[in-house]
Amino acid sequence: MRDNFRALRSALPTARIRFAVKASPQPEIIRLLADEGAEFDVASIGEIEQCLGLGVDPAVLCYGNPIKKATHIAAAYAAGVRRYAFDTESDLERIAEFAPNSEVECRFLASAPQSQTPFGTKFGCAPGEAVHLLVRARDLGLRVVGPYFHVGSQQLDPAAWRIGIEQAGAIAEALAVKDISVTAVNIGGGLPISYADPAPGTTELGEVIAAAMAESLPEHTELIVEPGRALVGNAGVVHAEVVSVRKAPDGRRWVYLDIGRYNGMAETENEYIAYRFETGRDGDPLEEAVVAGPTCDGDDVLYQRTRVLLPTTLQAGDPIRILDTGAYTASYSSVSFNGFPPLAVTVIGAERE
User: Fold this and answer.
1) Distance of CA 196 to the CA centre of its chain
2) Cα dihedral sign, 159-164-168-170
3) Among residues 42, 59, 114, 185, which one has the fewest Cβ atoms lying within 10 Å of its Cβ?
4) Of 233, 253, 270, at which residue does a domain stop?
5) Predicted TM-score (pTM) above 0.90
6) Buried residues in 205-229 as b, exposed as e (16+ CB within 10 A)
7) Residue among 51, 106, 125, 296 flagged as catalytic
8) Which residues are named in the active-site annotation (predicted)?
């Protein structure tokens, strides 16, 4: 994780790196990244309290979830949080009332290509509406930072950030006419890692982002980036076990694991993320398999359209490793659905910190 952080710092040397805590809210990770100089994107009072409990300065927290209660805004403000994101006028007015004089970023919906795990239109206003809302923020006595966009999780097309930055630049121009200077543009997260398929690296992404900033944003505009997966994804491995192997009536081989959709593998929904597997039998002949979890829910199937090749000799009791599972696994794990426990986490290397 430290290497990932430093690689991103090298690719975007002037950026403020704000870790998306939701990706993997492990105390050891938060402490390590705090020591590296990261800021933190927090989505709830729970994440705020966790960071503060670990000694993180509230000045480096941003309450980035645009869906939040007034009581939660008030609690965050009382705890010292002075940075907030929003995408509606109602949320903006709550921030002005319960977190006066705070810094704000307005999230707009960028015209980026679809990512591997898209958000759809759940978050973000129209770019033109962002101009109106940021003017309104100034009039309400808040400190305008600038526009904020997210290109979708696991975004494989570097052009997505160029498109978003161009749109952010147009918003900055419109705000300048209103005598509002944009101090920073938040380009969100979505930075990908390689799973079964390769992904562009941080160097390539950094070059695209830097070029777009130079072309589209006012000079001296700060860059904020909010990685989650890119920092922790390749640092995790799930150690699982084969529970059963069967041949279905249609002739397809099914491999059932002791981990599934509800206790760690949530990102296999719609087979968006294609994880890689390792077994102790990887030198044996391979054959396609449907991979499923252990619960009694018919949706607890990890892969049945994605081509997964597993050893033909695989059998019940065999260990199986699921690679690059450091992001959005334990944090998505349910609380004992069907009696199966949530994914347990063991941190290796923390003793060297």
Assistant:
1) 19
2) positive
3) 59
4) 233
5) yes
6) bbebbbebbeebbbeebbbbbbbbb
7) 296
8) 296 (proton donor)
